[in-house]
Structure formats: C-alpha cells, structure tokens
Amino acid sequence: MDTGVCTFSVEARRADGSLVGVSDASISPCVDDALLRAVQAGQLANDGELPALRVRPAWHDAQRPVVTGLTLALGDQPPRHYSREVFSTEAHGLIRRLRGEQRVGPEEKVSWNAVARAADPEAPRHRVRMQRAPFPLVAAPLPQVAVGAYELCVEAAVLARLRDRIVTTRSVEGAELLVGRLLHDAERRALELRIVDAHPLEPGRGGSSNTHFSFDPVESAAVRRRALARDDGAKPCGWHHNHNPCEGCWAHPDCKVDWVFFSGDDCEVHATLFAAPHMVALVGGKIGALPAARPGFRLYGWRDGRVVERPFRVVGDGSDGWDAELGTFRDEAAAPEESPMIEAEEEVSR
Amino acid sequence: MQTSVPTPSANLRDVTFVDWDGSRKAQLERVPLTSTVGQLLNEAVGHLGLPLQHLYQASLRGREIDPGQTLDDLGIESDVEFDLVPIVSAG
Fold it and tell me: Do B49 and A211 count as a contact with CB atoms less than 8 A apart?
C-alpha cells in the first residue's frame, strides 16, 4: 500500500546484529482499523472511500530507521498510534522462510526490527485504481453494547454444532467459514458482530492432519460465494478451526494441556484470507483442565492493526450455562472425578 | 460539453484482482497482453496491502491459473477480473 512518503519493512538480524533477511511490510491492517473505527463513530461515511492518508513513522530514538510503530490519520481524523507489533505476522513469516531456506539454523536466535524508509520515487508499472467494499453494516439498536464499543457474540447453536464436529473428527483438524451480521447502532456508535452459522470447508491438496488444515483456493472461494448468496443478511465474517489434542489426551481425561491458541500459521491464514477489520477467528479444542471430549473455544480478531484474543458472549438457547472464563458450557465443565494428577503441565509446541 | 473517450488498444487490457473476502479490488490499467498472470498478481498483492511473505494463486471463474501464462495465452479478449487466493494452512 502506498503511504505517499515512506515504506515499511521488517528486518531479521542474527544475535551479532548482522542482517539476514528483509521483507516489505504492509500497514493495511492499521488503515482498516482506523477506517472501521471512524465509520463506527459516524465520522466517515460507510461508502468504501478511503480519505487521504497521513502516515508518520514513530522513530526509535537511537536507531533510526528502526521504528517503534507509526501514527496514521485518515482525512481530517486525529492521528492514531500503532505499535510495531502490527508487523509481527510479516516478521515471523520472514523468519520462518529463512529457517525453511536454511539461511538461519533451527536453533539460531534471530530478532526482528521494523524500519521505515523514504518511498521509492520510481513510478509503479501500471496505473492502479483501488476499490473497497463498504463494511456490511446492518442498522440495529444495541442497548446491550457499551457506547462506542465493538463486541462479539456467537449463537449457542453454532458452538454446539462445532463441538459435535470436533468430537466426531477427533484427530483431524477441520475448518468452517463463519457467517454473521455486523450490527451497527449509529446513535450509540456501537458495533456487535453476531456469528449465526458455519459453513464446512473441505481441505485442499495439502490435506489435513492432526496438526494442520490446508485451504483449497477454489473450493474455499466457492463456499464464500455460497455464503454471500444467503438471503438472511448474514455475510462471511471469519473462520473456525480446531486444534486436536494428542491421542493421549483422549485416553487421559485428566490431562491439563491446553490446545486452544492462535499459532503463527493461523495468523497467516487470518492476515491473508480474513483481512477485513471486523473478521474473526474462532479456535476450538481441548481447553486446560477440561477433557478432550468437552471442547471449548477462544475467539481472536483484529484490534489496533493486529490479531488478539477477544472476549465474546454466547447468545441464544443454551447460553445460560456458558462459562466465559473456561470457554465452554458450565454444565459440561465439571472436573473429572478422582483423576490422578499429572506431575507437570507440559508446554505444547507444534 | 464533449468528453474524450480513451482509444481502446487491441493489446492492452484492464486487469482486476479481488482479494479472497471480496472487500478489496486492485485494477491495473492498460496492461499489455504479454504480461504474465504471476507478474500482475505480485503487483496487485502489494497494492491490496496483503502480506508479501506468502504464495498466492489467481483463479478465473473458478479455474486455477498458471502464473506463467500470459493474458494472450489465456485468450483474454476484454477487461478481466481474477480472484486472488492465498495458499495457506492453519496449524
């Protein structure tokens, strides 16, 4: 994305400070964040138009061109600060690529910086016209949402179906396209994303296993088109996938390993397929002390230009028993009886 | 008031890439038919603000396109719109 004055990139450096790799980095998640916030607050029209962009690097005091983040303003909106963490997906992708190419050893420590430099004055190869779709806002009163807040909720029936699927597929990861309504209360400047359904996705050529799910380029686009054709106002709004516990977890319900997290691969899926700022990622699987047969969920989404865990409410039938802290339904959250204690909680790395 | 209409060129096309969620489009204007889809796709990824460390696939009406094919190879006779799909796996 053209910022007009500078471009951002991420650099990977060895422990001795030597440069080992560089990759351009996009500020698009920051722009999207600022745009959604301004539309939510009624400061900009929801017409897909992007006003003039003002971007300034926040320089590291002693290490210019290293930056600690950036400030960004849309049109005459006040500038908003974004930390360098908005580039972490690109940075970790770069480091993974360098390890894959064996330019960095598997155990070698590598750090990363974000840097800003003057934009290349060379003209782009072709003239480009950009278009953005307006956010799929549905006007609705949201008295339950705090003024100015953006809250997320999932219908209980969706979670129940996803839990059944997780238990049925057992040791193979699966994925679904989530659909929902992005409700907007203009008076309260409030947003609520309500997830109402999940369309199954088939794995692509890379298949699926107990540690991965490969997205099929064409099939996933076909599922998205089917979801867009729904006549109930719900639109694609994110994705769900599950992390399977190991076989030992199924055999030992007392196991306390927590498999519900957002991995580096998951960040890449979200940044490339679900880049719109209201899109979310639901992850299901074995949570902490709960047995594998009672999967729970955590929700992740864009905030301040990066993907973070977000709280969510469960709505609809069955919501009374939801335990937000545990990420599952309370009636199923009873600790296993008289189970032998495991000696130490294992740190999971995949 | 008269407006001038650009003269269409037999060897130039407007080529649009749409990101996977359909929320953003980058239209590259007056692209030579000798351009490969891969070259254009790489240019579009940057304009769309998508992460650059990943592989992307272009598809046309549900068909995967070889990035080495030119617009001419594909028999593109008018302006065209490709879907841009990342090749990714959740972990």
Answer: no
∠ CA A71-A75-A78, rounded to 5°: 50
pLDDT digits (tens, 9 = 90+) for B4-20: 444 457 789 999 999 98
Give A80→chain B minimum CA distance, Å. Answer: 19
pLDDT in tens, A245-278: 877 777 787 888 888 999 988 998 999 999 999 9
C-alpha angle A81/A190/A235, rounded to 5°? 95
The predicted complex's ipTM stands at: 0.85
Token digits of residue A175: 């994925």
Q: Are residues A74 and A38 in contact, defined by beta-carbon separation less than 8 angstroms?
A: yes
CA-closest candidate to residue A181, choices A212, A148, A155, A211: A155
The full DSSP string for A51-120 is --EEEEEEE-SSSTTEEEEEEEEETTSPPEEEEGGGGHHHHHHHHHHHHHTTSS-TT--EEEEEEEEEPP
DSSP H or E run through A154: strand A150-155
The amino acid present at A279, given as its one-letter code, is M
Tokens of A162: 């996803």
The CA-atom distances, in angstroms, between B14 and each of A124, A131, B9, B32, B80 are 15, 14, 11, 9, 7
> Helices in chain A by DSSP H: which ranges?
28-40, 88-100, 156-169, 217-228, 247-251, 264-273
Q: Which residues of B touch A213 (CB under 8 A)?
A: 89-90
Which residues in chain B have Cβ-Cβ distances shorter than 8 Å to A264? 91
Residues of B in contact with A228 (CB under 8 A): 22
In terms of Cβ atoms closer than 10 Å to its own Cβ (0-12, 13-18, 19+), residue A193 is buried
pLDDT of B40 strictly over 90:
yes
CA distance A54 to A69: 14
For A29, which residue in chain B has the nearest alpha carbon? B49
